[in-house]
Amino acid sequence: MKLLRKALHCQLLALFISTQSSCALFERELKQTEPDVANVTISVKSALIESDAIDAAAIKVSMDEGKLFLNGFVGSKAEAAEAVRLATEAAVGTVIENKLVVK
Asked: Residues 60, 16: contact at Cβ < 8 Å?
């Protein structure tokens, strides 16, 4: 009985340590992801602001589940295309979802 308790105790301890390691790894990955999202959105918004062809104030840049979303209103299809082009250049490797509406 004493041996069984000791074995059970060891298994519980191993499970606890394993769970703690997984949680720590997840928290570290989460902390690394948050600044990445901020950096990408800031880079894209900066690229839009720097362009004379874009009314950057009318475009909202956001990210969700690894995708970058452009929402808002633009004056023409050309302006929308330019916004998507700039976003693609600023957020290399990120999927761009164009939700811009031509007014």
From this structure: no
